[in-house]
Amino acid sequence: MRPEKNQTRSLSTAKRIGLLGDTPGDLKHIFIVSKTLWARGVSTLLVLGDSGFMWPGHRDLDKLNQRLSARGQSLYWVCGNPENLSSLHKFPFGDDGLRWVRPNIAHVPHGYRTGLPAGLTFAALDRANSGDFGNANKGLSSRPQESITDQNLKVRGREHVDVLIRDDAPKPLPALDSQPAETDRFVPETGRQYSDAGLMPVRPKLYLGRHYHQNVDEHFDYGAFGDPAEARIVLLAMNGSPEAISQAILDVRTLKLQFFGRTDTTVTELTGREAGCWRVTTLGSSHILDFDRWSATRIPGKGASTTFNDRERPLLSIRTCRVGEGGFWTMDNDGWADPMEHYWHSSSEIQSIERIAPAPQEQDSSPDCATP
Question: Beta strands of the chain (E only): which ranges?
């Protein structure tokens, strides 16, 4: 049976994507990161491999989907090792090329390509050899189907992509090459050779992976292959540690990455590319910026003067909204009878920014929102 996919979120239209490294069946870790990403205004999550979602029973999928749905989030993942492919393949492909295993959870198949905002492109090249790949005990400890093949690379194609998701890492990469005893236990040399083969034809600007259980952020020089360009190679660490850099936020317009610990909900700036409803507290007042309704409301504090912006107005743009600085945003008028072309607000110094739950629909007459 094909689950009904979540129509409200799409990987191809996401402005910001929350990235997760290894999550091998660790539902607690995923719940924590999901909550942190919600607090940071991120609705689209992407696990870079070793999700551990598809093992017998699928009960965890139901729990995870329920939590994601409550937060207005969707989660995507690429296969790593080990994955229960026989169970996964029982789910058909949707019209968008993804396998929707639950309404808010989708598998990104090998060779998947899609466009991103600002005209950028995204592709996935999943799977990585286990450390025991090649052992005689095939079918038990070693899983031949997890290995990349020439046919897999053919499916992926040779057209340029801006962002490439790959479960392994290319070679050379000094951060890994300097510690072969540690990295060799994760994957044999053939795996990284296929990573090179997956990387070179498409020349991505940003290469995202995991598999080595450590955070790596380096540049790969195409110059050795006759191309003056270079790629940024980023590997995320694994689950389990609050301090580990196993999650990040990708701005798909700029390809900038923001790294943080899994419980760090600190937000110091809003750009308007976030999702959700936000309270911006200044020296004398607070402001509700709702990027789902795309509106702004000023709530004067005790002793603060009233203004014509002390009501909900349609938001036009965020010029600046950063902790420690004054904020500035513009708002639309009230329609053809309003003599003003637009309104603007220049705030006092911003003290804090926090995401808050939107008010229930029947309480929309109140500009404030209730904290979850």
Answer: 16-20, 44-47, 74-77, 99-102, 105-107, 113-115, 121-125, 163-166, 206-209, 216-221, 230-235, 247-251, 257-259, 277-282, 285-290, 295-300, 313-320, 326-332, 342-356
